[in-house]
């Protein structure tokens, strides 16, 4: 069991080429997946205060020490990042061929995971320590991120506990929610 | 190794409450994830010819025996479906607690996996054989579907082979694509 929503690893998700109008919902799904699957934060290149509010509201309600920052210069972030840089792309190496090596490196390194919205510039491929694919088919950056984090953490993200105002009581039928400790 | 994009299982994905304007991109990501992770088809409740074209274009280019149908009455589909009906919801039972049982049932049953866009009516919870969650946190139907199929197929979806006009040659840097058998 982990501390409240805190794995002993440092994983950052970097969302690049975010276009506030076109990508808000997909980037929201990327952010929520990052939060629930054990990342510390999501950094988004374009400033988007709506997106910050949406994601912060979920964290406020459901708990966890997760942060969002938008308006990040991703090129200088990546250049100065000292840990392992992973770019998720359908063109990359199959995740299962490198995951053992990555799990070992996770013990002593921070990870930055890059997921692009529209076309990713070639310098990101070159700057990344690994270009990794999930299935080598066109899928979705949302499912790619989920699968990658699940493989990296060997499923342990499923044991994360979040302590927020709201929590779900798992149920075979219907919805059971605890609000400030009281079952609704 | 599997036959070309064909697992020996019958999995259908049912997307409900799709709103063509608001949900087109998310539903596209759901469909592409379904295709790459071994489902036979995606059935969408509202008619959306744009969506059909987008998804069919990917299948035409990248291969696989995957189909999309939109304008489906999901209530009558679910009522008459004779196999195992799974509804993915953050309120459901944790996937890892039921996955062994589901893998056994997959050997002899078709599966329909329901993913909602907006609020899912309570009759879907009642009609489903299982209501299942991935993390019991708000994530995304895209990542929920990917994780669920990966668990159900025990990672074997990563070995699927698709034969299309285009195929990716996995690469540590850059992009290598085969177009009609020729490397670009």
Rough outline of chain A: globular
Query: What ranges of chain A have pLDDT less than 50 throughout 5 or more consecutive residues?
Result: none
Tally of discrete structural domains of chain A: 1
Give me the Rg of chain A, rounded: 17 Å
CATH architecture of chain A: 3-Layer(aba) Sandwich
Helical amount of chain A: 25-40%
Most extensive interface: A-B, 53 and 53 residues
Percentage beta strand of chain A: 15-25%
Q: Specify the CATH homologous superfamily of chain A.
A: SPOUT methyltransferase, trefoil knot domain
Structural class of chain A: alpha/beta
CATH class of chain A: Alpha Beta
Strand runs of chain A, count: 9
Order of helices and strands of chain A: EHEHEHEHEHEHEEE
Q: Quick one: biggest sheet of chain A?
A: 6 strands, parallel
Q: Kindly, what is the distance between the CA atoms of the first and last residues of chain A, rounded to a whole number of angstroms?
A: 26 Å
Q: Would you give the CATH topology of chain A?
A: Alpha/beta knot
Average pLDDT over all residues of chain A: 94
Helical region count of chain A?
6
Oligomer: homodimer
Spatial order of the strands in the main sheet of chain A?
A: 3-2-1-5-4-6
């Amino acid at each position: 069991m982990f501390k409240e929503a805190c794995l002993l690893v440092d994983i950052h998700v970097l969302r690049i080429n975010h276009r506030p109008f076109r990508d808000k919902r997909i980037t929201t799904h990327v952010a929520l997946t990052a939060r629930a699957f054990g990342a510390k934060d999501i950094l988004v290149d374009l400033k988007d205060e709506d997106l910050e509010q949406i994601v912060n509201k979920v964290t406020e309600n459901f708990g966890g020490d997760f942060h969002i920052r938008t308006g990040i210069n991703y090129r200088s972030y990546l250049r100065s990042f000292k840990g392992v840089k992973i770019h998720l792309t359908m063109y990359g190496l199959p995740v299962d061929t490198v995951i053992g090596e990555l799990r070992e490196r996770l013990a002593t390194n921070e990870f930055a995971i890059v997921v692009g919205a529209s076309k990713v510039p070639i310098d990101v491929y070159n700057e990344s320590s690994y270009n990794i694919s999930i299935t080598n088919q066109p899928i979705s950056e949302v499912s790619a991120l989920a699968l990658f984090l699940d493989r990296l953490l060997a499923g342990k993200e499923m044991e994360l506990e979040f302590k927020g105002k709201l929590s779900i009581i798992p149920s075979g039928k219907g919805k059971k929610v605890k609000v400030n400790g009281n079952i609704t």
